[in-house]
Amino acid sequence: MQNEPILSWKVAGLLLGLVLITATALVKPVGVSTQYVVANAVVLHSAAPNLAESNEYLAKYGEKNDWGVGYGWMFVVGMFLGGWLSAFITKRVRQRETPALPPMWKAQFGASSPRRMMHAFIGGALLLFGSRLAGGCTSGHMMSGISQLTIGSFVFGISIFVSGIITARMLYKKRTAA
Question: In whole angstroms, what is the distance from residue 144 CA to residue 11 CA?
Fold first, then answer.
């Protein structure tokens, strides 16, 4: 059956833990959101170096072709390639003509795929903004930060779950006929 997991959650969790330990020991803790800041800073340092240097936040990033420095971009690209490779190996790669819309989404917001894509893009942009505001992304805080027992990462993790539950309840509450 196509929906059966290849690994149990226990084995997958153990493997993820080993990856985190290895990454932290060999390079540094895992995180992704900084790479987007690096990309913006590299472009700004190339296009308008004075503006980049005058911005206190961007001045720390993107100096002298920072594109390939460190593990960051390899990690970002590896997420996409690893996801595709695992789907290909397990024969779970599938193509579909139009993105499938969950019934819950259709019931609440209608059957517009472009509308759903727009909401997904806006949600992703807000998540990225929030992750930089919080000093790291969900992978950085939830996996690396909590595994290192960082208080701020515990606060971040609790905040993400609480705000996610509240948002889901607001978006998907049953509408009553008036």
Answer: 19
Host H or E run for residue 22 = helix 9-26
pLDDT digits (tens, 9 = 90+) for 80-105: 888 888 878 877 766 656 567 778 77
Contacts of 56 (CB under 8 A, 6+ apart): none
Q: Looking at this protein, which amino acid is placed at residue 172?
A: Y
Q: Is 153 exposed, middle or buried (0-12, 13-18, 19+ CB in 10 A)?
A: buried
How far is 131 from 127, CA to CA, in rounded Å? 6
For 142-161, what is each residue's pLDDT tens digit? Answer: 888 888 888 988 998 898 89
